[in-house]
Amino acid sequence: MDAGAITQIAQDTLIVLLKLSMPLLLVALVVGVFISLIQALTQIQEPTISFVPKIIAVFFSILLSLDYMGSVFSSYMENIVSHIINLQ
Predict the structure, then answer these.
(1) CA max distance for the chain
(2) Neighbouring C-beta atoms of residue 27, cutoff 10 Å
(3) pTM of structure
(4) How many domains is the chain built from?
(5) For residues 27 and 7, what is the distance between their CA atoms, to the nearest angstrom?
(6) Cβ-contact 87, 1 below 8 angstroms
(7) Are 54 and 32 in contact (CB under 8 A)?
(8) DSSP state letter for 52
(9) CB atoms within 10 A of CB 52
(10) Cα–Cα 20 to 30 A to 25, which of 6, 52, 55, 66?
(11) How far is CA 11 from CA 5, 49, 50, 63, in A?
(12) CA dihedral 6, 8, 14, 15 (to 10 degrees)
């Protein structure tokens, strides 16, 4: 295995990592900003108010994006297995 193949695998790994984490992080960001705005407008400074909606929103976004995550990870694993097969 040469350096170019290793670099390509590392690049593919980082791209898959971003594809899998970005939807969840964006949902958590949007919900967090929305809850912070509500807290600033109502002057309620309870820290648990911001965590519970984010946890619920991320949980539901995981449930909704499981099919997408599975397909991304499956194609990545097929790519890795093909690299392993070509090592011989």
Answers:
(1) 65
(2) 19
(3) 0.79
(4) 1
(5) 31
(6) yes
(7) yes
(8) H
(9) 10
(10) 6
(11) 10, 38, 35, 27
(12) -160
CA torsion sign for 47, 53, 57, 63 is positive
Kindly report, residue by residue over 1-46, the tens digit of the pLDDT. 788 888 999 999 999 999 999 999 999 999 999 999 998 898 888 8
Token reading at 74:
């499956």
80: number of Cβ within 10 Å = 14
Tell me the residue length of the chain.
88
Place of tokens 């949007």: 30
Mean pLDDT of 69-83: 94
- Can you give the residue range of the structural domain that contains 75? 3-85
Contacts of 46 (CB under 8 A, 6+ apart): 39
Distance CA 6, CA 12 (A): 10
DSSP alpha helix (H) spans, the chain = 3-42, 47-64, 66-85
